[in-house]
Amino acid sequence: MNHRVLAQFKSAFRPATKTTLWLLKIMLPISLLVRLLQYYGVIAWLAQYLDVVFQYMGLPGASAIAFLTGASVTTYASLAVMLSMELTLREATIISIMVLICHALPLESAVISRVGSNPWKMATLRIIAAFLAAMFLNAVLPGMSSPFTAHPEAEATGTVWSVMEVWLVASVKLSLMIYGLIYSLMVVQRLLGEFGVMPLLDRPLRPVMLFFGLPENAAYLWLVGNVLGISYGSAMMLDLEDSGAITREEANEVNYHLIMNHSMLEDTLVFAAVGISAFWILFTRMLFAFMLVWGRRLLKKVNLLRA
User: Fold this and answer.
1) CB atoms within 10 A of CB 108
2) Could you read off the pLDDT of 1-22 as tens digits, one per residue?
3) Largest Cα–Cα distance of the chain, in whole Å?
4) Would you call 88 helix, strand, or coil by DSSP?
5) Which DSSP letter does residue 147 get?
6) Do the beta carbons of residue 170 and residue 24 sit within 8 Å?
7) Paired strand residues for 88
């Protein structure tokens, strides 16, 4: 037993290092660029035009940069932008939820298209849901005027070199945190696979599938998507489709849930580690996944009655 566990810790080292380096190649240049844009006043200039829209979500216009970065690249890149901005905890929470619902659109839309889901429809739904979730949170979140705890260092003033110094210190801290999280997650994933834990959860989760409006036999698929993400989930969908365990339509039904609510283990841990409430992350994403699936089912019934 101990030997099997130790083997998983060892096997996670190299892929965790590779993944972290890949992420940092994206994140660090983006975060440096944002700091320099702030220093030269470009962010403030852009914010005045974006405030008109983002004020309805309780956000400054400059936060659009964090959202657009996450939507086009990854949640980690968006987090790097957030760490480079002065935000309240309330603002950071709202942006985080927007990004968690709507991130990596080009990549994830391409992945889900392989199992038969319409990538354009899925991307549009995620964008709309991100803005609706932000307006929802702006209405229900309590006042949280304290500074975003992930950004405790004072903003550098003076020369551009002082800005670079602050960025460097923050980047080292962020890099270490990301590596620790990624390594831990990879170890957990390997242990779950090594000891066959996830298939054992299939039957107990079937009532949860009924609650979410999903096919009863999609429990294992739902678990894979929520623990490991859309990419792993789609690969599993293809395998289950080929074996006849689920139909293409059932896989599509699960995708409507997963576009709102996937990779819950990794995403929640990463954003909770920098101060975002795990409750609001889990509750909001599950709520919108629930409403989307059941809303779609209701709409299909209405259309059948009209026909």
Assistant:
1) 24
2) 678 888 888 888 888 888 788 7
3) 69
4) strand
5) B
6) no
7) 147
